[in-house]
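Subgroup meeting minutes
Present: P.N., E.W., G.H.
Scribe: E.W.

1. P.N. recapped why we're keeping a running log of single-chain structure predictions: easier to compare across weeks, and new members can see raw inputs and outputs side by side.
2. G.H. added today's entry (183 aa).
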Amino acid sequence: MTSARFGIVLIAISISLAFSLAAADSSFSPAVRATGQLIVPDGYEMWPLLGTWSIAAKQEKGAEGLHYVYTQPGTIEHFRQHGTFPDGAVLVKELRGATTRAMSTGTVSLSGPIQGWFVMVKDTEGRFPDSPLWGNGWGWAYFEADSRMETTTKRFGTECLTCHVPAKATDWVFTEAYPILQR
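Output recorded in log:
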C-alpha cells in the first residue's frame, strides 16, 4: 500500500472512530462523554423544569440565590410511572444569583446571572467504576459559570454526596422539592 493510500485509510479510520465515540456519548446521556467526563449539556434550558429552589438571604428579606432544576423530556413521565429515574437521566441545577426589591406585589427576588451548575446523571449499570465522579448510581459534578465542559469536582463522595445524605432514601435526589414528580 502506498503511503498516500495508507494516509487516506488512517484518516477514514479516525473519522469512523470519532463518529462512533460521539455516538457513544449521546447513546447513554447528553451530559456524558464516552470517557465518563460530565458536561453541562447544550440546550438544557429548553428541557422541562422540575422545580426551583430559593436560597434565603442570611441577613435580609428575600433570596440570595435561585436554583432552577431541569431534566430532559421523558424523565418526568418515567419517574411518575416507575418511581425511579431512568438510566441516563440528567438533572441540571442552574445556580443563579438573585436581587430583591419591592414591587407592587410585595417584596420579590429576581433571577440574576448564572453562577454555576450542578449536574447529576443516573447510571443504573455502573459504567465508570474507577471514576471519582461516579457512584451511588449517579455521576456527579459542579461547573463554574465560565466552564460548561470542565468540572471543578474531584471526588463526588466528599464534595457532592455529603449534601445529599438527607435524600438517600429517594435515590439521593430531593424529590419532595419537585411536585411534578409526585404521582
